[in-house]
Amino acid sequence: MIITIDGPTASGKSTTAKLLAQRLGFFYLNSGYLYRALAYLLMRDKGYSLETIGDPTEPDIQTILDTKRLEYDCDSQGNPIIRFDGSNITPYLKTGSQIDQASSLASAHAIVRHILLDVQRDIGKKHDLVIDGRDTGSVVFPYADFKFYLTAPLELRAQRFMNDEQRRGNKMSIEQATKQLKIRDERDMTRSIAPLKIPQGAIIIDNGLYTLEETVEILYQMIRHNQ
Ligand code: C5P
């Protein structure tokens, strides 16, 4: 079974998806980590910067998105683990606004999306899956068994985003958080390939009205009663 959860940045989809996967005993695929891993490695190994990462060369993309080198797995708590050439790079993938921006820029590239489409579908062939991202119900798994679109008001998402960044040691004002979110939302929604949108047939949930536990419970009950 495939369950997709899409939505804008800081809509709570990753935590919801992880907890839902745990509850169902499914594999959790956080597709954002794949884009983050690519951006991190393009900067670390290939010398890209925020100015150039939106237009990486095909050989550079292919060297990094080689499935013999880049592996996606989950630990016993369902947290994503990304390894490159056997070493765990996960701690570097959520460490600040540079990697946030770089992954957003690199993710608009056609070849990047094309290769990662196959990577995600291959994982879906091996597991019952809860996957979260921007295009998982619209492009990656358009025939998913259940599709959800999570959202929340901008002010609330900005507050969550700021809290997350501060927990990771990045000082940020609410104005800066709001500005960064708007830029990323705009870029994700207006890119020509696989933009963020509400997938056809998706159930929309505004989780500004619910706690995390309530959100997971709503999704879980919808799946249980419609199987
Ligand atoms: O979800 P997260 O913020 O970790 O994703 C990092 C970036 O990767 C996002 O800003 C988005 O631009 C991109 N992304 C995407 N498609 C997905 C998942 C993430 O374009 N399915």
Architecture per CATH nomenclature, i.e. the level-2 architecture: 3-Layer(aba) Sandwich
- The secondary structure category is alpha/beta
Task: Name the helicity range.
Answer: 40-55%
Strand arrangement, major sheet: 2-6-1-7-8
- Sheet-strand content, in percent, reads 15-25%
CATH superfamily: P-loop containing nucleotide triphosphate hydrolases
- The helix/strand order is EHEHHEEEHHEHEHHEH
Shape: globular
| Total domain units | 1
Number of helices: 9
Spatial gap, N to C terminus:
10 Å
Average pLDDT, rounded to a whole number, is 95
Q: Main beta sheet, described?
A: 5 strands, parallel
Query: What name is given to the CATH topology?
Result: Rossmann fold
Total strands: the figure is 8
Structural features, described:
The chain is an alpha/beta fold and 227 residues long. The chain has one domain: P-loop containing nucleotide triphosphate hydrolases (Rossmann fold). Helices cover 50% and strands 16% of the residues. The strands form two sheets. It has a five-stranded parallel β-sheet, sandwiched between helices. Strand 3 and strand 4 form a beta hairpin. Helix 1 packs across helix 9 (212-226), helix 2 packs across helix 4 and helix 7 crosses helix 8. The protein is globular, with a radius of gyration of 17 Å. The mean pLDDT is 95. It binds cytidine-5'-monophosphate (C5P).
